Amino acid sequence: MTIIHTNDLHAHFSEFSKYGIDCSAKDYTNHACYGGIARIKTVVERIRATEPNTYLLDAGDQFQGSLFYTYYKGNATRKWMNEIGYDAWSLGNHEFDDGPTHLAKFLKKLEVPTLSSNIDTSAQPELTGLVAPYLVLTKHDARIGLIGYITPTTPDIAPVDKVKFSDPVKPVQRAVDALHKLGVRRIICVSHNGYKEDIAVAQATRGIAVIVGGHSHTLLHSDNATYPEAVGPYPVSVKNSKGDDVFIVQAKAWGEFVGHLQLSWSANNKITHINGSPIHLTMDIPQHLATQALVDQWRAPFDAMAKQVIARFTHPMPYSECKTRGCRLGYLVADALRAQYRGKLPNTAHLPVIGMVPLGALRSSFGEVVTVGDVLGMLPYGDPWVETVVTGEYLVDLLENVAARKHKINGRPVTTWMQFAGLRAKVDRTKPDFERVSDVQVSVSGRADSKWAPIEVRGKYVVVAQEFLMSGGDNVVPETMPQLPKYGVMSDMLMAHMKTLAAGGSLVTVHDEVGVAFVN
Length: 520
Prior knowledge:
The protein is an alpha/beta fold. Helix content is 27%, strand content 22%.
């Protein structure tokens, strides 16, 4: 049998540059455009035509990440998924970005079975009957068991209302056991939980043959010379709780790659042969004409607006550099937040102002030329921002939570990295949790080249941040502040800030304030 798989498409229906944004003329000249659902369609049709017993799976996060989602809110996604003919998919955390009620409306018209074994929708009646823990596919004269699961951190990063999430190990094992009772022994998981987490699930369970993964945007590829960003071979093999092999695959994100896994089973339902490789969707792969015509049709209502140039910068601002350090893109957004503060809070005119934004709020890169579409794709959530006064101790505790990737008080995982403007610190990962942060400083005069002063534990500081973050999103802040007054929309705020920087058509210098830096 053959498994074709995608994950974390994030509504990247059009081809894109290496930064995940619309291709420029330079990208086309350099033959440097990738992906797009018209190329996915070409690859899927080719494989289906030449390889029998083919299954098409998706590991979640079809929603969010481009104007195709911002504008259509899943309607284009549903049409695409129905048309390409996925056999099943697992929910991703971003499918909850507009809440369970919106997700339910999407799923009711979706013709693809939706899987997630570790969620409980009993208190969310609109989702009743729309999500299954597992299913049995009976295509190609075979019975294949499919089990879905999702990251249990979803409540910290999405508005899930009354839907409950649990660690996947026990629910997945229950689903395996249920399939065994039905006589199904060939079992594949479709996971939106992350690569390292999938390894842990594989090791703690029995009866799973393959895990098709997503969430961590991990590239698994056996050609490490061509693809040095690959973190392991394709597939990766780990031992389960009985010592049997479990094979794990994942295909990066955005549809830049399509996974292609070939395997054979013995009469006693053991995998006897497995190989394959992700297919890189470069410009060498032709676009399926009818699908590309559909993409062009979907783009038409927002294309002219999306192409309006807001600012030109001295350097590109790739999202990839933001995952474990202060970065240009993160600083730009955090500095825009800081610039919004106009002394609205009483007795704050003399206080340092800090802008901060979680990495999870940023969804794509900026090139040197930034358009309206780039901003709406990079900040797609429509979030407001808030302003408050906190102590230095609060900020240090926040930094320690981020450095430990765990909350000091509630013990749950912190699910994001942070970007700052007006604050910097050093992190030593060799030290114990909650003792890793040192040399915390704040900007005195409020610019990238300003003077810096050590933070005072009992001192007071103005913080301007995304409302989602201060309300407890991503499990970062030491103490939530859910009732703060809300201001504007993040994307509008950033566009206004960029227009100010680019007044008169000037080229905007990209600052690279360090923010949080690792010393070990």
